[in-house]
Amino acid sequence: MKKFNLSSWISSAGLLVLVLLVAGCAVGGTSLKNLPPVEPAATLPEGIVLEGVNPDAFKVKATGPILSQTKDNITVQIVYWRRADLDRKYNRGNAYSPFYETEGQNQGDKTDVFYLKITNNAETPVVYRIRGTRQVPCEMVDQGENRYGTLDYDGLKERLSYMSRASGIYVKNGLRKAREILIETQIPNTEKGIQPGESVEGFLPFYQMKHNAEELTVIIPLELKPPEGTATRYKRIVYEFPFIHHKGIRLAQPAPHRY
Hints:
Strand content: 25-35%
Shape: globular
Helix content: 10-25%
Radius of gyration: 22 Å
Number of helices: 5
């Protein structure tokens, strides 16, 4: 009869526990593939508030923790959306997600998507442009000073046109959905601005950050209109939201999926 080796059994059991922990299968554990690769920074500058997870904060239920900041009676709220959650919500039926991607795409052809809400409690309209102001672009900047611009509706449409798998009615329906959910399309007249007492909200996609990015700032510039009949210039108001990026979690994300 083969002799029972206790030390060998303990080593094997320990290895099994380690594998389970890494896979997120241990009791109370969470698999890396179910975590967001981008989350709010642990230390926040003065004036930026971590609201936590609040599904009812927006028209589209938020899936992650929200950052918020108020300046000059104008509040901006922002939350990151995982691609897997976007797939589950929009990459289904007879439509491609407006943010559709394939595994074979280059990093620079993919997107990182946030949801943004701007609430104007000031006395005059506030102007938001998808590209930012002439002096301050709307963009993401990582710790290496790499900059990632936004994609507007036309940019998403062009991006889908490059994909051989994305065509026909699926793309048409996906672009129709884009008009319903992008923040830029919720502002009928950009220069007229967001009126006092009103708010706009929607998705804001950026070109995907490099995988070696660790610290990230999302820059949202606004311009507050002066009172009518005055010679005062527009007032530029810049919001800078700090996030962190986890390469390991990014690489563990599930493959693109249609529902």
